[in-house]
UniProtKB/TrEMBL annotation:
Residues 1-61 form the HTH myb-type domain. SMART domains: H15, SANT. It holds the Pfam family Myb_DNA-binding. One of its GO terms (cellular component) is nucleolus. Residues 104-174 form the H15 domain. This is MYB transcription factor. It comes from Rubus argutus. Residues 1-57 form the Myb-like domain.
Length: 254
DNA sequence: CCTGGGGGTAGGG
DNA sequence: CCCTACCCCCAGG
């Protein structure tokens, strides 16, 4: 009765994204408790964080294909429906064709973005690293065709302009960008070590592309320069180890 | 207690 | 009109 809609500010989204990258999605209370983010999120509850993240994740996919997914008369609209929690689709679906479950796609994309957000590799993360991250992120499901599905989703996201292909793998696309926010206090140093500039800034300015990804690029750059490089190198190390493990090599830790 | 999921609704194309 | 962004409620862990 008393509450009107309070739109999320970029600062709040920034804090949420950074919090997810730091603590992981699902640790809403932890993010809220973190002194790094609490000032920005003082007005928000952990439930708010969860809802916002859900909306954010949905908006990554959604739209665009809107009418395509209404092909099935059985499925009402789009939105979210039937949810096997965090379980991935059943193993080896009989029809290898397009089993386009919107819900499933959104889950994949959410996990992919979460992976890329966490191990923010400026050179891009390869499929193996992403696969391994997701595999660790969720416990149970390990579909055999998952790598294939993952590769498919990555290709799809690239063609949608959400991701871009790099030499080493994939990264979140940054276009249309950085000037929107322009952190006013960026006086720290002149480095701006991010490679954002070299990307061809061809205007993908689709409606649904909005500034979500751009904001993410900003947030990524901010975090990288603001916080640690130790984390970066550690993540790289972990990534290497992961790749080695994927090749079946035996890894010894010092 | 905290989290995930369902669902309602206002507001903007 | 439909779609998106927020918010509230409820069940399970």
């Amino acid at each position: 009765m008393g509450n009107q809609k309070q739109k999320w500010t970029p600062e709040e989204e920034d804090a949420l994204l950074a919090g997810v990258a730091k603590h992981g999605a699902g640790k809403w209370k932890n993010i809220l408790k973190d002194p790094e983010f609490s000032p920005s999120l003082i007005l928000r509850s952990n439930i708010d964080l969860k809802d916002k993240w859900r909306n954010l994740s949905s908006s990554i996919t959604s739209a665009q294909v809107t009418q395509e997914k209404m092909k099935n008369p059985m499925i009402k609209k789009s939105v979210r429906y039937a949810a096997p929690s965090l379980s991935l689709p059943s193993r080896t679906p009989p029809d290898a064709t397009v089993m386009d479950d919107t819900k499933t796609q959104e889950r994949y994309n959410t996990l992919i973005f979460e992976a890329l957000l966490t191990m923010k590799d400026p050179n891009g993360s390869d499929v193996g690293a992403i696969h391994n991250f997701i595999q660790q992120r969720i416990e149970e499901p390990v579909p055999h065709n998952f790598k294939r599905l993952l590769a498919g989703r990555l290709r799809s996201l690239v063609s949608l302009g959400k991701l871009e292909k790099t030499e080493n793998g994939f990264k979140i696309k940054n276009v249309t960008l950085l000037e929107i926010k322009t952190p006013s206090g960026l006086a720290t140093s002149s480095e701006t070590e991010d490679d954002a500039v070299h990307i061809t800034a061809y205007t993908v300015a689709d409606a649904e592309n909005k500034s979500f990804l751009a904001a993410e690029a900003v947030k990524e750059a901010e975090r990288v320069s603001k916080i640690a490089e130790e984390t970066e190198s550690m993540l790289l190390l972990v990534k290497e180890i992961n790749e080695q493990c994927l090749r079946g090599e035996v890894v010894h830790l010092a």
